[in-house]
Amino acid sequence: MSVEYVKTEDDLPPVAVVEKPRWTPAKIVLWVVIALIAGAGWSMIAFVRGEELSASWFVAAAVG
Which parts pass through the membrane (predicted)? Predict the structure, then answer.
């Protein structure tokens, strides 16, 4: 995480700290895996119920 110090004057200590969160490759991979597992879960629900996979299931997976 990147940190930026906010100063009012150079000879005084910082008055605030602004944290800038970063997307690391590990975080991106983690969220992609979570999304794929969630999508597979919604697909399994549709198959178990005997329904076809349709756009409405993908919308439900994206929202839910």
Answer: 28-48
